[in-house]
Amino acid sequence: MRVGIVAADSMMGRDTGSPGLRKARDYIAAELARMGVQPAGDGGTYFARVGLERSAYTFSAAVRTASGERTLTTKDVVPLAGVAGVPGLPRPTGEGRIVYGGWAVDGAVAPEGELAPEQMDGAVLVMRFGAAPDAGRLARQRFSLESLWGPRSRLAAIVIVADAAMREYWDAGIQSLATGAVARAGSLTPDSVAGGPALLLATPAEAERLIGRPLAGARQPFVAAGTLRYQLRSSVQRVEAWNIVGVVRGSDAGRAGEYVALGAHYDHVGVGIPVRGDSIYNGADDDGSGVAALLEIAERFAALPSAHRPARSLLFVWHTGEELGLLGSEAFTEHPTVPRDSIVAQLNVDMIGRNSPDSLYVVGSRRLSTRLGDVVEAANRRQARPFRLGYALDAPSHPEHLYCRSDHYSYARFGIPVTFFTSGLHADYHQPSDEPRTLDYAKLARVAALIGDIAGDLASAPERLRRDRPMPPVGEPCT
């Protein structure tokens, strides 16, 4: 398998738009050309351009009290501009008196001590966010965080206390300042974002300095003695990014214009915060394993004589920008290089080289087509060593919501039946320690063989796979 090459340190974590990702792109395209897989990107190439742009940020802040002014640093306060789920371009400047607001709990009603509207107007609101200890006796504001940061908010800024539960957001904020935020072209312009108050994280120690007392004793909202001002500037630059697309043409002239799509994402998160001295996030399992599996499957079918190939064509897409919010697969399904209605199914492969050697999670296989789920299970039963197929991650109530979080969903939102194959999360997920040496290569090869068999079954079936389950309207939130 080729995972060691795709995830090598020389590719520097394959961040979208980076030189490392371009190396991975060129490697995949060279392999497809060697195999004889037909280009299916733009203009007869393997590359389908994805319009992306990067917004870079500069941040400064200061606090003024009766004793004077002090400058804040990113060791104390970090903006969440460009972090997933947070408006990308808040108001560029803001200043207001510091107000402590207690705990923000969605739907909670403050039994006493609620801030008056005039105290909130123009304020820098310091909040604790999450499940409050001893919540019955702590004042809780009857607003959600989302209601405060919208364009109609009259707050100057929101400061969230960065306790241990917020560590991931703190790291994301630091990373965004260092590398900027990437999004679909046009989505980072001032006219397309909320333009609300800045959302900041503060260390507990800095939060105590802001409000002038220990957090442990801050049980009720109050107006503190001081003001905070910030400046958050952004600049937008174009990012070069491509999906990689190839086709193994089907043998039946009447059905070769229909496609079974297979996908994996070849981006990862790049160079980030060092962990035990290692700052390169290799992404060997996520998703070097899927990239390598697709190359093996493509070579398997491309090596067949034309007459012995499945009737329908196989469409291979290595997506960019999955880690940034499915950007590449969104772009491809909105502007596909083959007719969208000619794609009969999509098989997504993401993280298949870890955990128990005989376990494999299946997500989405019966959400749109019950027949697709049957095909998956029948192919697995034919394997010399079948997997224990797990469906726990497919439950809409599962906290990870994996059906909504990988590239297959970009296809499913248009009614294309999908199946997502994964061996599940692990302790090295999104860590520098996700390295080639940690992979179970024998398992990876077996998963690739199974997915290849499923693709072949779908491409050879006399009848095209049909959707027989309802789908939400395009544009509805994923559940």
Draw up the topology in text:
Blueprint: H1 3-6, H2 19-35, E1 38-39, E2 47-49, E3 52-65, E4 68-72, E5 77-79, E6 93-104, H3 117-120, E7 124-129, E8 140-141, H4 145-148, E9 157-161, H5 167-179, E10 181-184, E11 198-202, H6 204-211, E12 222-239, E13 242-248, E14 259-265, E15 271-275, E16 278-280, H7 284-302, E17 313-319, H8 327-334, E18 343-349, E19 359-363, H9 370-381, E20 388-390, H10 408-412, E21 418-422, H11 441-460
Question: How would you sum up this structure, described in words?
Answer:
A hairpin with a 2-residue loop joins strand 15 (271-275) and strand 16 (278-280). Residues 3-7, 106-112 and 135-144 have low confidence and may be disordered. The longest helix is centred in the last third of the chain and has 20 residues, at 441-460. This protein folds into 2 domains: 3-51 and 241-460, 3-Layer(aba) Sandwich (Aminopeptidase), CATH 3.40.630; 54-238, Glucose Oxidase, domain 1. 50% of the residues are buried. It is an alpha/beta fold. Strands 3, 4, 5, 6, 7, 8, 9, 10, 11 and 12 form a 10-stranded mixed sheet that branches. Strands 1, 2, 13, 14, 17, 18, 19, 20 and 21 form a 9-stranded mixed sheet that branches. The two termini are 35 Å apart. The chain is 24% helix and 27% strand. The protein is built from 11 helices and 21 strands. The chain is elongated and about 85 Å long. The protein has helices at 3-6, 19-35, 117-120, 145-148, 167-179, 204-211, 284-302, 327-334, 370-381, 408-412, 441-460; strands spanning 38-39, 47-49, 52-65, 68-72, 77-79, 93-104, 124-129, 140-141, 157-161, 181-184, 198-202, 222-239, 242-248, 259-265, 271-275, 278-280, 313-319, 343-349, 359-363, 388-390, 418-422.
